[in-house]
Each structure stands twice: as C-alpha cells, then as structure tokens.
Amino acid sequence: MANLLWLQGGACSGNTMSFLNAEEPSACDLVTDFGINILWHPSLGMELGAGLQALLRKCVSGEIPLDIFVFEGTVVNAPNGTGEWNRFAGRAMKAWVKDLSAAAGYVVAIGDCATWGGIPAMAPNPSESVGLQFLKRSHGGALGQRFRSKAGLPVINVPGCPAHPDWVTQILVAVASGRGDEITLDEFQRPKTFFTSFTQTGCTRNMHFAYKVSATEFGQRKGCLFYDLGCRGPMTHSPCNRILWNRQSSKTRAGMPCIGCTEPEFPFFDLNPGTVFKTQTVMGVPKDLPDGVEKNGYMKLTAAAKAASPAWAEEDIFVV
Amino acid sequence: MEEPESPDEHEPQRDQIAALVGSLETDWQRRADESERFRQVVRALRGVTLPEKLRIAGFTLHPVEHDGFEQACETCMYYLVHRRWCELPEIDLPVRAQWSCNVWRV
Predict the structure, then answer these.
(1) Is residue B4 part of a domain?
(2) What is the ipTM of this complex?
(3) CA of A289: which chain B residue's CA is closest?
(4) Which end of chain A is flanked by fewer CB atoms within 10 Å, N or C?
(5) pTM for the full model?
C-alpha cells in the first residue's frame, strides 16, 4: 500500500478534473487494483479543519508514511514572499509544500502551474507564483534546484493544461508499484516515456505538413495548422496524438492548434494580442521552426515540398 | 461526382489581374516582415474591391528578392499548386506561380 496525498495551490482544478476522468486505470482502480491509499485529495478527502491539519502534521512528522506527494497548481509567494495569499489548513500553503516534500518518498507536480508556473506566473505575476522546481525555464522554483525526494529523485514534472489522465495515473502506478527508479526524466524533469516525441507525432494532418498545405481558417479539415494558425505541434513534446484524449481525439485532430502547453514557456508570448492562434513570423518565416530545423533548410524544404505536392493534398480527404 | 475545377478555367481572370497590376501603383516594396504588419495588411484587405486588394497586398507579376530569398507565389504557403490559387481568405484569387505579394509567408 502506497500513501498518496494530493494538494492544490494556485490552481483551477483542471488537473483534478482530468485525473478523475481517468479510465485505464481509473482513479478507483488506483485504490482497488494498484494499492494506492489516497490519504486526502481536495475533491475526495473527508477530513476538514482540525482533522485535516492533524493528518498533514502526521505526514510531515513521518507518523503516517507519505509515499507520494502530488501537487497541483502554483506555489503562491505573494504578498512579499510570505505566501499568505494562499493559506491552507492554518498556514501558508508554501510552508506545507516545503515540509511535505521533505517527508515524501516521491514528489509529483501535475500540470503546468505546479511544474513551471503556467498561466498564474505570466508577467506581471501578481501572485508571485512559481512551480515546484522551475519558474518557466529557470531551475529553482519553490523547492530549489537541488531538491531530491527521499527516493532520490527530483520532482517528477507531468505538465499539461491539463495533464492527460493517463500520464498522471501511469506515473502514479509506476511509483506505487515500486518502479519509480525506472522513470527516466528529461532536462525539465518530465518522464521521457511521454515527453520525448512531439505533439505532431501521430497527427492526422502530417501529410499536409509535409506538402506545405496550410489550414487558413478554423474548421477546415484539410491543411496543417502550423503554418498560419499558430500550432506548436512540431515544437512541443507531448504524446497527445499517440495517447489520445478521451481515447479518440486530440486538439489537432479536431482542428484546434496545439498551444504548446507541456513546454515551460506556456502560455507563449504572454498571450499578447495577435499571438494566440496565429503563427508569428519574421520576414515571412515562422519565428519558431520545427524542433531542430534551421531557416535555410526550412526554406529549401518548402520549395521542394510545394513542387512535389500532389493534387489530393489540396483537397479535403476526410469526406463524410 | 463533382469534377474538380480546372485551373485553366480561371486564366481570363488571371489575365485581368495581370493587366490591373500592370496599371496600378502597388506598395510592393513594403513587405509584411513582422506579424503586426502582416495583421495590418490582412485587416485592410477585408471587403475591398479587386484593384484595392491588389494595391494593398502589393501584387507583383514577378518574384521579389527579399532577405536573401526569392519570394514567389509558388513557395508561399497560401498558394495551392494545382489550382494555382491564393488561399489566404482575404485574397482568395487565382494567381500565377511567379507572382508575389507583401504577405508572402512560408
């Protein structure tokens, strides 16, 4: 049996909603089949007030072994570094986060806010929000770059806005079943098993990407969303087109550009007017090119791809 | 089954556009290099007449060399190679591969 505690800081509960929609395994399966004992969760916990404070104190002291500490939302530091804007169970949440992380076997950050600050940490960041070990791309965050949980791992970052339920449950199952040491992390402490390939990997619009045929308006079923509508699929590390949402779709499959929500810079360009759902260009070339591609190569590829494009690439092939 | 339209059907319209471009003063040297300028041009293209559209977009009947690259319709992402058509919704016209305009993008 592995004890799991889930707390929320500066959060919208989106990751909780995602987690509660998990199917294989479901949140209930985690308890019944995988031996996870959910000590407390904001939407599931029964304890209130003094009872909850006592539970948290026992986790901190080690009286109740805390195997997995999950945190959702930012760590709020306002005002003036005190964290008093986010009080929870009698003290600043940031104090609980520090104490519980020190006591936990594994610490898992779920969603962009807990990993790198996400939307609350956008400039001017009035809540002085940070992620557990990052603020955007900068290492540090609430726990500091050198933090390691009792199992010897840094915070396991499962980003996304929200994170896919399978990413959450599979990491929790791995940890709870004693396979935590098999989780390999990338430079942003994301599990490589999910965050090495790109959102574009498995996208049904890849043919249109290859032949440089662009979608120019929402709702078009042909065309790639990268060239004009700001899709970040070729630069974003996520398995959204391999592990489908609701088992059947993804943003790009539904005609919605990827917004890059698993990357530390999300939301990109601080959501300035004209930057959302519009590819940013310099001299007619996208500012952000597909990962690893340089400008000259991109230009040559464009000319070759356009010249080679077949007629069907310009038609809607998803005929009803 | 509906037959796909032939690009040749629109040759008279291309000829008409070519004649108009030849007679217009277009601001073709002011390329929409930055996204903000691109948005301004696209906004200005909405709901205007054909000559105004050609003038605002800066149509030319030849590729434009800019930033070390030849900007021709045939490499622009809005160009449909087989239909020989500009698919930017605000332009939406039959064009030719060797033409160019200020909102060229790849």
Answers:
(1) no
(2) 0.84
(3) B106
(4) C
(5) 0.91
Residues in chain B within 8 Å Cβ distance of A309: 81-82
* Domain housing B63: 9-94
- What secondary structure, in 3-state letters, does B40-62 show? HHHHHCCCCCHHHHHHHHCCECC
Q: Which residues sit opposite A109 in a β-bridge?
A: A71, A157
For chain A, the residue count is 320
- Minimum CA–CA partner of B101 in chain A: A284
Q: Which of A109, A111, A122 is nearest to A267 (CA)?
A: A122
Taking alpha carbons only, the member of A97, A49, A98, A105 closest to residue A73 is: A97
Q: By C-alpha distance, which of B57, B68, B45 is closest to B99?
A: B57
Domain count, chain B: 1
Please report whether residue B102 resides in a domain. Answer: no
Q: Which residues of B fall within a CB distance of 8 Å from A285?
A: 105-106
Distance from CA of A180 to the nearest CA of B (A): 44
For residue B83, being part of any structural domain is answered with yes
**B70 and B33 in contact (C-beta within 8 Å)?**
no
Give all domains of chain A, ordered by start, each with its CATH number.
Answer: 2-194 (3.40.50.700), 197-315 (4.10.480.10)
